[in-house]
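Supplementary Methods. Inverse-folding protocol.

Structures were first reduced to a discrete structure-token string of length 290. This string, shown here, constituted the complete conditioning input.
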């Protein structure tokens, strides 16, 4: 049986041994780096000098706990409790999706497209951790940003993320599938953005178990026979909620690009464009309201 003492070398071997089969050696080395920097506050100099370092009993305990959770398949981001999104450090837990790199791309796209807007009013629908709303608010200094979500637990995470980054966003509970005009109508928006649930129930069989078992299904899945349900609801409200010339941005399922384009055109959006993500998949659609 493998034993662990408080040398860093044995801690590393312990991780490699325990996570063998769950992750590749390369991933485990990255995980070790993340654990050491997040849980033990190590910087790059600490890593260089690691052979001379010793771990305290409490660090060893935390390491063991973290490894146990990782062995159960719990995603690293939930184990560490934080992720980096753009230049923000965000709390994440099982109530919110772990932000994906594609969503960072969406935020950057909006940043470039809308750089000329003065004091934009931005609405993020299905805000989750608040990653989109908070990074846009930080990017557009004079903006007014509102993030809505159906899930009160997700909103609490988003509120904490606003506080931890010192960013102002108005978070509010709203079920976009069951809301009336008066709940959304207080402001007209210049930009509406959403990364709603879009993964098909039938995609489940190809998904990683750590996504399926730990991430909130409410934020991920839609029925195959009503795959655009959220986009349809959002576009219906955008009809009065967006100013003329206002922009809509969606993250979408890679196979739904053409259907989404038609849907936006049905709602009288112009300059509708599908864009690819960094993996070459159709992942975003944008349009301008007539
Ligand atoms: N991109 C996420 C995934 O692949 C899904 C996000 C969503 O459903 N909005 O798991």
């Amino acid at each position: 049986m493998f034993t662990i003492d408080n040398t860093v070398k044995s801690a590393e071997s312990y991780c490699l041994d325990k996570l063998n089969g769950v992750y590749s050696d390369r991933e485990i080395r990255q995980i070790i780096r993340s654990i050491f920097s997040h849980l033990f506050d190590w910087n790059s100099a600490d890593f260089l000098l690691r052979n001379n370092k010793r771990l305290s009993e409490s660090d060893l305990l935390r390491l063991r706990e973290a490894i146990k959770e990782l062995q159960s398949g719990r995603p690293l981001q939930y184990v560490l409790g934080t992720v980096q999104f753009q230049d923000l450090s965000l709390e994440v837990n099982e109530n919110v999706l772990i932000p994906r790199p594609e969503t960072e791309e969406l935020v950057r796209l909006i940043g470039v497209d809308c750089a000329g807007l003065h004091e934009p009013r931005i609405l993020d629908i299905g805000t989750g951790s608040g990653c989109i709303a908070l990074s846009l608010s930080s990017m557009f200094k004079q903006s007014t940003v509102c993030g809505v979500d159906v899930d009160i637990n997700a909103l609490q995470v988003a509120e904490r993320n606003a506080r931890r980054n010192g960013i102002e966003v108005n978070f509010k509970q709203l079920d976009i599938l069951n809301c009336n005009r008066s709940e959304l109508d207080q402001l007209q928006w210049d930009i509406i953005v959403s990364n709603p649930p879009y993964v098909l129930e039938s995609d489940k069989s190809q998904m990683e178990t750590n996504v399926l078992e730990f991430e909130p299904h409410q934020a991920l899945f839609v029925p195959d026979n009503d795959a655009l349900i959220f986009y349809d609801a959002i576009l219906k409200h955008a009809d009065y909620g967006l100013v003329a010339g206002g922009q809509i941005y969606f993250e979408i399922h890679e196979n739904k690009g053409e259907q989404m384009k038609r849907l936006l055109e049905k709602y009288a959006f112009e300059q509708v464009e599908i864009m690819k993500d960094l993996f070459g998949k159709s992942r975003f659609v944008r349009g301008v309201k007539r």
